[in-house]
């Protein structure tokens, strides 16, 4: 695996004069073996894309893994000792997709490339030697160097999604269990993705952490690609050169992530990252909380002593406590929607002939919509005859399930507990702690990604399985 430790090691300069080493294509004795290993790995990947016989799959998979493992190790040795080159890093990114299904190595490698581009652009290969430059002035030479770097990205980014070097490896990757991205796309083109979703539902609970790791890695990779986009644009603009287009890579990653989210219903809580960042200020907040606690103690001592704890709570109520209640309500609401989904899945599997599951899904969908949209849908007359009206009334006209926000980070409060929150006595210290730890969920979590997006039909390529 390509770890954070390896990344930090490969950020350090190879030498004081040449931070990223020499331009390896000028040394055929070094470049040719690498090129041969890359071609061999590409060939073994292509064999897997050509509908091999069932008896050959295990052998081909092992051969493919070994070839990419060898290429990855050879490239690592080059990166450490000889050269860090954009084209070679593109090969390395492909290898990480094949070798690490968690996508953690791929994300770390993408972050490494983004950092090299941002911090060591002038040294990052290709760096053309003076005798290869046609321009005589410094501005012209700088433009030629930037053009060479921009063109070196082409194999990685491609001129289409299918043309990207990452497209084939992504097709092989499993979304959940043994369902590959290629399988998902094939089913999606047939309009049977909801059936596939039902088939994989049994694996979701067992693979929840694995799926979360994949989504986290994909988000890291997207952030790194965005950083790459900005950095290359700035460097190329200085030289008046067209920057590489990373949109196709972004689309591949986003579609892969959307497929995982749709099949599993698992989404990352976007508030978690913000909460982690906020943790850095905990010491300051704690000191403020301590001061506020002391002030409350002084106030309490000056009271006649007849006020109860519940009265003290009422006296210290403010807008922050209201937002806390709203946050609890929202989180409990999401938890309730997940419970409805569990009930719906039960009826869908145990009584597929019954409309109960579809009616529950209709309720869930309405629960994720705004009130005006719900009213508008209720007032819209369904087209067609009696059968269409029956399908609309029972929810049978919508087979897909709404993707619900993740609630693992939430400790749900029961209805009875929530109704008694004002009756429970708390000390002032407990009030302060509640204020510190309360966080409001984003309203966008409920409405985003409610309907799966259908992709355009893809062209046939050598890796269209």
From TrEMBL:
Q: Please indicate which superkingdom the organism of origin belongs to.
A: Bacteria
Q: Which InterPro entries match?
A: ImpA_N, TssA-like
Extract the ranges annotated as region (Disordered): 274-314, 418-465
Residue span(s) of domain ImpA N-terminal: 12-132
Please name the Pfam families in this protein's record.
ImpA_N
Cite the record's Polar residues compositional bias ranges. Answer: 418-452
Q: Where is the composition biased (Low complexity)?
A: 274-284, 299-312
Q: Which PANTHER family match?
A: CYTOPLASMIC PROTEIN-RELATED (PTHR37951), TYPE VI SECRETION SYSTEM COMPONENT TSSA1 (PTHR37951:SF1)
The protein's name: Type VI secretion protein
């Amino acid at each position: 695996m390509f770890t954070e430790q390896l990344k930090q090691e490969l950020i350090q300069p190879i030498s004081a004069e040449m931070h990223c080493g020499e331009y390896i294509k000028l040394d055929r004795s070094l470049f040719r073996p690498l090129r041969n290993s890359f071609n061999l790995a590409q060939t073994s990947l292509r064999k897997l894309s050509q509908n091999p016989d069932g008896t050959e799959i295990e052998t081909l998979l092992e051969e493919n893994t070994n070839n990419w493992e060898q290429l990855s190790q050879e490239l690592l040795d080059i990166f450490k000792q000889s050269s860090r080159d954009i084209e070679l890093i593109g090969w390395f990114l492909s290898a990480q997709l094949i070798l690490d299904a968690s996508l953690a190595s791929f994300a770390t490698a993408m972050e490494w490339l983004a950092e090299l581009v941002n911090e060591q652009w002038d040294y990052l290969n290709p760096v053309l030697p003076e005798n290869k430059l046609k321009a005589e002035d410094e501005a012209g030479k700088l433009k030629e160097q930037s053009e060479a770097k921009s063109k070196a990205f082409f194999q990685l980014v491609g001129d289409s999604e299918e043309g990207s070097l990452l497209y084939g490896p992504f097709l092989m990757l499993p979304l959940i269990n043994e369902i590959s991205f290629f399988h998902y796309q094939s089913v999606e083109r047939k309009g049977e993705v909801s059936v596939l979703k039902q088939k994989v539902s049994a694996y979701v609970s067992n693979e929840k952490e694995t799926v979360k790791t994949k989504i986290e890695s994909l988000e890291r990779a997207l952030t790194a690609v965005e950083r790459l986009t900005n950095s290359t644009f700035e460097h190329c603009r200085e030289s008046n050169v067209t920057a590489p287009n990373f949109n196709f890579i972004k689309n591949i990653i986003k579609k892969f992530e959307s497929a995982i989210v749709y099949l599993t219903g698992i989404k990352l809580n976007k508030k978690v990252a913000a909460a982690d960042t906020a943790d850095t200020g905990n010491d300051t907040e704690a000191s403020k909380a301590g001061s506020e606690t002391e002030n409350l103690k002084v106030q309490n001592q000056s009271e006649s002593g007849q006020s109860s704890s519940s009265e003290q709570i009422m006296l210290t109520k403010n807008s922050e406590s209201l937002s806390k209640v709203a946050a609890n309500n929202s989180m409990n609401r999401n938890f309730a929607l997940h419970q409805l989904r569990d009930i719906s899945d039960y009826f869908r599997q145990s009584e597929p002939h019954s409309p109960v599951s579809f009616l529950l899904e209709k309720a869930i969908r309405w629960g994720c919509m705004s009130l005006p949209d719900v009213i508008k849908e209720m007032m819209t007359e369904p087209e067609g005859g009696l059968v269409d009206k029956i399908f609309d009334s029972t929810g049978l006209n919508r087979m897909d399930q709404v993707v619900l926000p993740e609630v693992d980070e939430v400790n749900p409060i029961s209805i009875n507990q929530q109704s008694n929150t004002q009756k429970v006595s708390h000390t002032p210290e407990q009030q302060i702690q509640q204020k510190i730890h309360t966080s409001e969920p984003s309203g966008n979590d409920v409405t985003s990604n409610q309907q799966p997006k259908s992709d355009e039909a893809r062209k046939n390529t050598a890796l269209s399985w």
